[in-house]
Specification:
Blueprint lengths: L1 H6 L13 H10 L17 E5 L20 E6 L12 E4 L5 H11 L6 H15 L9 H12 L4 H7 L6 H13 L1 E5 L2 E10 L6 H11 L4 E8 L2 E8 L6 H6 L4 E2 L3 E7 L3 H15 L6 H4 L7 E2 L4 H11 L3 E6 L2 E7 H9 L24 H10 L4 E6 L2 E7 H17 L16 H7 L2 H17 L2 E5 L1 H8 L6 E6 L2 H12 L2 E5 L4 E5 L4 E6 L1 E4 L8 E4 L2 H6 L9 E3 L8 E2 L4 H6 L2 E2 L6 H4 L2 H13 L2 E2 L1 H12 L8 H14 L2 H10 L3 H4 L7 H18 L9 H10 L4 H11 L3 H20 L5 H8 L4 H10 L3 H12 L10 H6 L7 H14 L6 H11 L1
Helix pairs in contact: 3-4, 3-5, 4-5, 4-6, 12-13, 17-19, 23-25, 23-26, 25-29, 28-29, 28-33, 29-33, 31-33, 33-34
Length: about 850
Amino acid sequence: MIAAKKLYPDAEIVFPGSQEKKLRDFIEAFRPIEIKRIKDIDLSKVKRLIIVDTKMPDRIGPFAQLLSKRNIKVHIYDHHPFNKGDIRGEVEKIENVGATATIFTEILKQRRLHPTPIEATILALGIYEETGSLLFPSTTERDLLAVAYLLKRGANLNIASSFLKMELTMEEFDILNELIQSSKEMVIKGIRVKVAKASREHYFGDAAHLAHRMMDMEDIDAVFVLLRMEGKILIVARSKVPELDVSKVLKEFGGGGHPTASSATIKEASIELIEERLIDLLNFSVKPGKVAFDIMTRPVISIQSDVSIKEAAAMMTRYGVNVLPVLKGDKYAGLISREIVEKALYHGFAKSKSLDFATTDAITVGPYTPIREIETLMIEQNQRFMPIVENGKIVGAITRTDLLRTLYEEFLRRRRIEETVTREKPAIGRNLSSWLRERFPSSICNILKLSGEIAKELGFNAYLVGGSVRDLLRGEENLDIDIVIEGDGISFARLLGERLNAKVRTHQKFGTAQIITDELKLDIATARTEYYESPAALPKVETSSIKKDLYRRDFTINTLAIKLNPKDFGLLIDFFGGQRDLREKTIRVLHNLSFVEDPTRAFRAIRFAERFGFKISKHIENLIKSAIEMNLFDRLSGHRLYEELLLAFNETEPIKTLKRLSDSGLLKVIHPKLVFNEELESTLKSMQETLSWFDLLFLKEKTDRGILYLMALLSGLKDEDVKVALERLSPPPKMKDMIIKGMHQARNVLRKFPADDPVEINKLLGNLKLEIILFTMALSKDMGKKKAISHYLTELRNVKTILKGDDLKKMGIQPGPIYSKILKRLLEEKLRGKLKSREDEERFVRVML
């Protein structure tokens, strides 16, 4: 599918069914490409279906319904021969090779669409998996050549070997493949069951091994494997849910065993008839699993959206609840928790409406959602209260207590079931130690290991936190190393500095330190928690745990940490769903008072969204709107706002960022008359073009992009409004003066600009700062003036006379004021292009005298 995406870049990748566990682990570890869910695809809009590695209609899930539509184009890539009932397509690339990945590798090589190293690794994995690491009889010369090409393109065999399973014999693989191809999946009362069959002439022993394999590979609750061999049929069944007792099912066939593992042998029977009878039995054998309706609490205590925070607090105390659903009329609108209510009261918002601080994007489920699905959602989304909503109305709720009680009852039932199946399961804990070694310079990785060892010596825990962890998971390099210590950060920093022979700067008040080596700076901090005495104020800090430290961060994507202690080196810590939001490319806050405590986070949310190409959650949009309505930004320090703007201008495309700030109503926080209109957009585009042009000159001079875009942003305001905006932003006094003076100078230059006289242009621009000249160039709508300014920057400002004062003295000219007059006239003539050489200049001086 990933190779097909390179051939069809506008197509979407979708799995029509479940994935093998190893594949899920691979996708989770490397996230090679965005994969859509079936529910996110509007089948009515699909115009073309690209099918890989199968031609069977029942293997493509809901997409099979598209096959009957006339306007659907079908393209098929497969290495299996055609069989009766297979899908036919407009494009059919069917080749007799060991793996479909080989076909794609050849196409990519032919079209010069060279895969990246991770894509090459994925394709190599596909070939190795389907050819038994090139050992199965189905392997062809073309498969070997494809692997050779992929290795040349950077395929990583270490990664490949870690994800391949080598235990199956070729015969087992053959039978397993037949079982998978023949398998039928059914969902009976919420339980997913597969029935698979295969035939062999001779006796085959370890069918249970294959049943386990299928359970590992497929995301199912139970499997029934039917094997016909030597005139008899063996049925092997496995179940991992109490709703399906496989021993009772196979008892009907004369078999037996335990509820989770059972088998039966039937002599002289048709495998098709046995399969049919088994499926009929299953429809009556599966106990209905519990759904939300079975365990939910009802009726639910709730409040109306216009109820004040103070009243919400009183109601929580009165009824002894920690979460209240918020309603608009009789319709569900959101959730508000005791923690949020208490913080809102602390910050003086007792009279505010509950809806202003409610979580409006909490997940909800229906009354007939299976409990197992609710359990997954509540754990993965860290949601302690699940509203049960039907037709927009709240009909019940499931709390953590309700869920725990249900899970405990299930646990007791399972304990009574004798466990006969013992299998080793691979650990699924996320450890990024290999990523640290591969993606960080060895010197930094060694410092991180040393940090963990020192933390262990001191009895502390050390964690790598911040942007470096976030960007490691995003696949980008970020060597801003921030380490948080559960313990005394300063004593840790001093010992680490001593071992590294590095300079250490400490800040006792905040429990922080900075270690400066020849290669980099490390920021060390003691794990802290913080609280805000008033909205938009600087936080008060207290020592705390890593969890509390991460909770004070701005967004979930910045709450990830990696443990550095030797025992757990590389262990990823994710308390707040940061991995999920990185996968979903979403900016999300940790709590509903985030912008109350620090309104700059609203600007930062947009900066991160534009910088990473992420979306802002609907909930954040609502919180920004509420923050504006509550005038929270009036309390925000201008300097913090100024610094955030400069970061946005330097890290993102300013035009898109400012457009988004305007759409969110945040531009008016700077000045009420700031509007993102066509005139401002034109000026910003001109500034972008000017800076791009200047960058291409490859000069050593550096420009202050942030200040230039700030000037462009304010250029449409009147002088008095510019001063008011700068008062609001509170830039350093020198910078403020430069901006005001520079904007005035730029307009003055454009007003007086000479038509085509290089001498006058040089006089006009010669004493201006580079930023003012570039701003003038961007501000001008006259292409002639732009060209003249560019001529000044590239040539005129570098023109110098060859003759100096000493040369005039040697020519016999007595020193005096005449020297400056002569040199001035020389420069003017040289600017006009009339003097090319030293002789020309000497001749001009003699004539002038």
